[in-house]
Amino acid sequence: MIRALSCCAALLAAGPLAALSCLPVDVATSYQWADEAEEGYIVLIGAFSFDARGRAVPRPSDINDPTPLPAVAASFEGRALAEDGFTRPYSGTVTLTPVCWGPWCGGYPAPGPALAFVEVREGALTLELGPCGGAHFAGPLPGAAERVEACHRGAGCEAETLR
């Protein structure tokens, strides 16, 4: 947590001329992050659908005070990670929430197949979409589901680049 706050402070202090440098992320890194988070997460694999028309990322009028895109309700059909793998059917609404880190903002993913690390907030599901990714992986990603299942079983969770 302290490292994350230091990183954010450094990004904010750098000003608008600095570029955002994102570290590569994969599903194992994201699994570890979600597993260690104080918030509760579930992992979903399946397809998101929502009306993507008119949802382009707008250019901020003030790069030092960006406004994230509004949250959008998406339908999800697929499976949730259970003790024995991606075996629990899930159909429902997931709120897609783009977030900003300093002047850099995340956007909406393309509708379609994905693997996602979704936060459970007061019984509702929220997928936060930051500028560096890590919570949403557009699919199909060969081996991604198996990799997450291995992490969940405790059978090794070393990072690999699957993107």
What would you note in describing this structure?
This protein has 163 residues and is of the alpha+beta class. It is built from three helices and eight strands, in the order H-H-E-E-E-E-E-E-E-E-H. The chain has one domain (22-153). The strands form two sheets. The chain has a five-stranded mixed beta barrel with strand order 1-2-3-7-6. A hairpin with a 2-residue loop joins strand 6 (112-121) and strand 7 (124-129). Helix 2 (27-36) packs parallel to helix 3 (144-153). The protein is globular and about 50 Å long. Mean pLDDT is 82; it is low at 1-17.
Nutshell version of this structure?
The protein is α+β, with helices and mostly antiparallel strands and 163 residues long. The protein has three helices and eight strands. The protein has helices at 2-14, 27-36, 144-153, and strands at 40-49, 72-82, 85-98, 100-101, 104-105, 112-121, 124-129, 136-138.
